[in-house]
Amino acid sequence: MSGPRVNSFFLGNSSGVNFSIILSSVDEETGKLQLADCSGSKRAGDWNLNVTPGMNASKVTISLTRNLQLCLPNATDCCTTPLCVVEMLQVLACRDSVMLARLLIQAEIYANSSFTGNVSENATIIPNQVFHPLGSCPCNLTAGACDVRCCCDLECTPGLKQLFNESCFNGVFGGDVNPPFDQLCSSESMEYIPDWFPFLCVQSSLNNTPFLGYFYHGSTSTPRVPSFKIPLQTSPGRLFTGYRQGDPIMTEENEYFTIPQQSMAGQCVGNAPVAYLRNFDVKCLTNLASYKEGLPHDVRVNSGTGDFIQQNVIYRAITDMGKFITESESLHTAEVLCQNVTFAEDYTFIWKDKNIEQINVTVFLGNLCDGEILAQRFTVKFQSLKSTNATVLFGNPGYQVGKPVKAANMNASDTFGSLNIWQTAGRGLCTLATSTPVLFGLDSFSGCILEVGIHEDCSLLRGNVTEKLNSLIQATHVGKRDNSSYSDVNDWVEIIRLDPFNSDTNVSNGNLKGICPDIPANLNIRIIFADVGALQGIPQQEILAVQISYSTVIWQFQCGLICENSTSFLPITASVQFIKVPAQPPIPMTRFQMNYTEFDCNRNDVCWPQIFYPLTRFYTGEPYSQCLAKGLLLAFLVLLAAIMSNPWFSKLWNSSLV
After folding, report:
1. What is the pLDDT of residues 359-378, one digit of tens each?
2. Dist. CA 158–CA 151, nearest whole Å
3. What domains can be seen in the chain, in order of their start residue?
4. Handedness of CA 508, 509, 510, 511 (dihedral sign)
5. Are strands 261-262 and 98-110 parallel, antiparallel or unpaired?
6. Which residue of 109, 111, 541, 596 has the lowest C-beta tally within 10 Å?
7. What are the pLDDT digits (tens) for 336-356?
């Protein structure tokens, strides 16, 4: 221990236990600690022992009672050396002279050096830097030594000052902490004093000087660190006026309602807040060692009006674990540890306007064993209270960011279509990959790996890759709006398809096996949209056009020392890009605007075409009557200056004086 107090705990029942403390010493010949018995007491030398009994544990406190101050001249009861206490203690716990436990303590305690001498009520008063300079000699930077060129340093002897007497620091740094400033009426430091100086000078004492700013830095504001908890209301009453699209959903404890989601790096974040009207469907890989439970389902959620609603939770058992267990590292035996965990959670938020009306949660449980990799699935879906079908949301004409893009297949009897991208798991093979809908406003890039043999026919390979890419686009049209009707053709835009280049040759030039050119391995989806209006302050976005194209690559078989009877991999990808365009084409620039840029108000600080802008109705900084009055006054002054600058006015003025 290095302080005057230390705490420990005696575990177990302390009834009938006798605690004691003794000072121990080391035998100089053998170097061993002397044995102790149970005959000690709760005080030994300057040490006290205090025991606070408990139910299953007792707190044992050892404290030092002596003074730890360094000795002053002619003082007692103090420390003569900086290392004040060097002792070895033993704390014993005995019952009926039988030792139950022993605690060995080696104490090395130094004397207090924060101050020397007795504490006095005459505390040092530090002057307020706003009104008085804190230091009388700012250039005195070294304690106990003379600072060169610091003539106000009291540690500089007259002999040393003669060495730099002619080059001392001047001004505030040199010790003149209250110099007369230039604005002072009694100051004579200015070489040239204008005639108006007596009318604008300052009558003040030297105690109130602007040089105090050299010592006073003013009040500093601490940076506001965003906390995970945000207050919803600062005064009693329901001040929470509802959610808007993208707002985080709050709980009863003023915390974010979190569900695991994927970050920009593709990893799962367990404490990601759920955004209002933002659907998502994610998969997170975990195993039994790293499995963690999420937010409890008994947490109540703020509905948006200040009320709190309970989640309606339904628990179900997983029947087909093959959809969730992506990899098994070892065979199941009787000794393998298994645990009942959450395989999937499906959240459905029933909403109306800016409020949440109901939350339905379906939790799927199953056994996860050691060595297995689980692909947990978390889905969040917002369903309007007015909707009769969970897939159709009425009342919102435009798309919202994060909602699936609506697609239709007009060539089939069932017009329902899909526009998807891949969602891979495990090894990333195309045979195991699933699909996820394209979400509006979110650029995405996904892909999978296709196994190809060395004897693969190039034409069949092109057809196989094209078929897998086309399986993502099961639609001929895309809805302009989120509430597009399947019965109205005008609510849909046709998908523009640019077919890939089809080569007539089965193999590459030169009949080399293992090389295939013009493989359409990349699917490019470009969606053009624009803002067409606003509903309750929320911009409504509409899709204008959709284009699908393919990018070709040259595939070459990759192998090691032996290529026969082996497979290579061909990565195929799908990318989605959202391009925002203005709702109306911009007005083209004239030739005058392109050549004479000095008259362009957007590219210059001085805008001559808008010199009379304050006099127009478009200026709202001041009332129009004040702007008109100031403009007329300015015009009068300009006219008066022009008249007085004419030569005939000076002749008329001189003749009138004569």
Report:
1. 999 998 888 888 888 888 89
2. 10
3. 5-71+81-110 (2.60.40), 149-207 (no CATH), 256-384 (no CATH), 403-502+513-580 (no CATH), 589-657 (no CATH)
4. positive
5. unpaired
6. 596
7. 788 888 888 999 999 888 889
